[in-house]
Amino acid sequence: MKFFFMHLMPYADLDLTYSEKYDSAWVTLPNSYYDPKKGAALYNRYLDELEYADEVGFDGVCVNEHHSNAYGLMPIPGVIAGALARRTKRAKIAVLGRALPLLNNPLTVAEEYAMLDNITGGRLIAGFVRGIGAEYHSWGSNPAISHERFHEAHDLILRSWTETGPFPFEGKHYHFNYVNVWPRVYQQPHPPIWIPSQGSRETIEWASDASRRYTYLQTFSPVAALKKYMEMYKEQAERNGYTATPQQLGWSVPTYVAETDEQAYREAKPHIETMVNKFLRMRPEMLLPPGYSSVESMKGMLLAKKAVASTSGGKTIDELIKSGIFLCGSAATVRDQILHYQKEIGFGTFISLMQFGTLPHELTLKSTRTFAQHVIPALRDVGEPAAETAAA
Which of 33, 57, 103, 272 has its CA 20 to 30 A from that of 110? Predict the structure, then answer.
């Protein structure tokens, strides 16, 4: 199994009384709540945490893209990835991901990723997403055409990496006389591509196509939803004529480890509850605007989102642990939880959100170190093909 350290970079200094006046930390929360001096300190603190994950033995670090919110301060994840490119030495850098439908020129992502791939000597993992519904409100983009823009942008980027330029590209949404990306990507034919999702059937069917076989990541979901969508991916792969490997299936989940179960519960409780009840607070129409998904996919994502957070708040750590949305406990407890779910579901990539909400720096580092020292080594060979295990 491969282990990645995910960071959202929340604005941890948020005045939590905001919810007395505003119903969401997304899109409509005035940016007067952001103090640049505090934000500057947070950016540098969070970069330290990502670099520390590389030092203690995580296989990779992950950054992502969100706009106009207090939940994640990475509207341009390439900036953070660029800062990490020279400061990390071993870990993969996964950008999970760029929201392709929001872009007027997807070749900027092709260029950005190619630069990162060269600087790191081939440590880049390229993530592509449609972006959650809130991003379409922030950018004034039409969610009803997000699927077709995503697919067309993806095809353009892949061709720019794998075909010799210059060549013309004429699509419905993007038109170029000269596609000729400099620099070329370091990894040939292109960096590995990962597709995060909250459970869109359309995304699963597309990612599992035999011509792609992209790694699919399930994010912020109860274990029941995780199992459902992982099975959906595997079944779709069989229909496409191949068997999905554990490495094509990834689980992203907030995780906290301490000396004992009781201590982990006590230390994590205020911060995970703040995350789901304050930072993730969002109206359903912001999350899933009309036209963003099919009715079937929308029902599934709404159920998953409802289990994580509600518009009125009030989710407890006990509910989150019970549903598997949050892993919390001693190293032995968390290790056993991951092993149990892996045997039941079959994922081979585990992405831990080690900092969440208002969790302070010292506790983040302690949990990260404990996880790296006492969880990762015991699960390293789980979910690996026999040949790889023997070679290791």
Answer: 57
Run of H or E including 40: helix 36-56
Measured CA distances, 101 to 40, 252, 292, 370 (Å)? 29, 23, 11, 39
Please tell me the distance from the alpha carbon of residue 276 to that of residue 217, in angstroms, as a whole number.
20
Name 241's Cβ contacts closer than 8 Å, sequence gap at least 6.
210
d(CA 161, CA 110): 7
The answer to whether 375 and 338 are in contact (CB under 8 A) is yes
- The Cα 205–Cα 200 span in angstroms is 9
What would the pLDDT profile of 163-176 be if each residue is shown by its tens digit? 999 999 999 999 99
For the chain, give every domain's residue range. 2-391
Contact (Cβ atoms closer than 8 angstroms) between residue 317 and residue 262? no
- State the Cα–Cα distance between residues 193 and 212, nearest whole angstrom: 9
Helix 331-345 / helix 223-239 crossing angle, nearest 10 deg: 30
| Residue 388 pLDDT greater than 80, yes or no | no
The residue type at 301: M
What is residue 125's DSSP assignment? E
Please state which CATH number belongs to domain 2-391: 3.20.20.30
Backbone φ and ψ for 170, nearest 5 degrees, come out as -125, 105
DSSP 296-316: HHHHHHHHHHHHH--TT----
Band of the pLDDT at 249, cuts 50, 70, 90? very high
- Confidence label for 293 from pLDDT (cuts 50, 70 and 90): confident
DSSP H or E segment with residue 97: strand 92-99
Tokens of 26: 């997304």
Q: What per-residue confidence (pLDDT) applies to 288?
A: 84
Q: What is the mean pLDDT of residues 196-206?
A: 91
Nearest Cα residue to 292 out of 141, 156, 155: 141
Which string of DSSP letters, residue by residue, matches 241-266? TS---GGGEEEEEEEEEESSHHHHHH
In tens, the pLDDT along 51-107 reads: 999 999 999 999 999 999 999 999 999 999 999 999 999 999 999 989 999 999 999
